[in-house]
User: What shape does this take?
Amino acid sequence: MRLTTWLRLVPGRPFRRAGHRTAFVAAGLPLHLAVVPLWLWLVGTMAALVPALTPPPVLLTLVVTPLLTAGQRRRYRALVGKDLPRPAVPGPGRNWKSAVRRLTGGALWRQVCYHAVAGPLFAVLDLAVLAVWAVALVAASLYVWIWALPPQWRVTDVGYTTQAAYITAGGLALLFLGPRLTGALVRLETRAAEVLLGPSRTEKLARRVADLAESRAGVLDAADAERRRIERDLHDGAQQRLVSLAVNLGLARATLGDLPADARKVIDEAHREAKEAIAELNNLVRGLHPAVLEDRGLDAALSGVAARLPIPVRVAVDLPQRPSPTVEAVAYFVVSEALTNVVKHAQATRADVTVERIGETLLVVVADDGAGGADLAAADGTGLAGLAKRVASVDGTFSCRSPAGGPTVITVELPCAP
Assistant: This one.
């Protein structure tokens, strides 16, 4: 039967907790003392001034350190339920470069410091705590020991019972103090293990940033998928119903010639409202996620945007392969909103849109020959701040150069690494 199974049979939660912690302390002794012979060997060779014998104990320490670390992780996980996070691996592979990265990385040397420096100190503290438990148990049960001894071995001096009572009281006091000392030592060892055996603060922050970036990418992908779903539902549902309504109203207006003037006026008004609703719904669907962007990519989608504008727009898209749907959608909405701003505010006669991929970066440039003076921080309804936030949502960069008198050039860089 395993040790943890025996500990579950101990009645009472405080006693079981003290039993787990005491077992944790006892299990740490061989792991803490494992490096001591190697360091005694190293100190002996250095004291004997034999440099040739110095590398072997150091190399053995480096070899044994990962094994001891794995043992310590199992010890913490099994006896106190603490799962120590592993430090970041310097690099994949088993060649000499990865070995050099591991040797020069801080994680290995923190582990060496734990086993070679903190380990022997904890071994001394472990022995002290176990000694306190041993003395406490023997002293608290002194009367049992006296009763268990044969009559010829029992103490018969006058006052021995009073001394035994004092010893028993001291043992009970140590039994009361033992769990607290054990708990303090477990907390101290756990804290040292988290610092030396786990990732450093920099690695924790880097891992946290990576987790946040991954979760944010998931949120963006989910939002983009939701926009696509809404676009499909509107296109296949409400839009088709409105088209059917407009067709029926048109047929009614064309075939029912004997209607009163008031009824015909109502049908005409309803037919006009239905066509306007269809146009507004088309704009709404296009603003959510245009179907042409998903089907044919940025070139076709941006060409469609340019064709609907009242000014000439030159569109040049050079993409050997399509970026991710999220990045593609951000690029489309940035260009679409920027061109809308050109028409509304720039007083321009022409605009140029360039989209190209340079390495792992999608470069988007929107330029016009308007009056200029666009301010990213101004709250004048130009929407540049919103564009900057949309670009920042995918770790992109947004810049706007718009001197008074023009021209205005908006440059966006979007990461599109696989």
User: Anything to note?
Assistant: The two ends are 51 Å apart (CA to CA). Residues 221 and 326 are 6 Å apart (CA to CA).
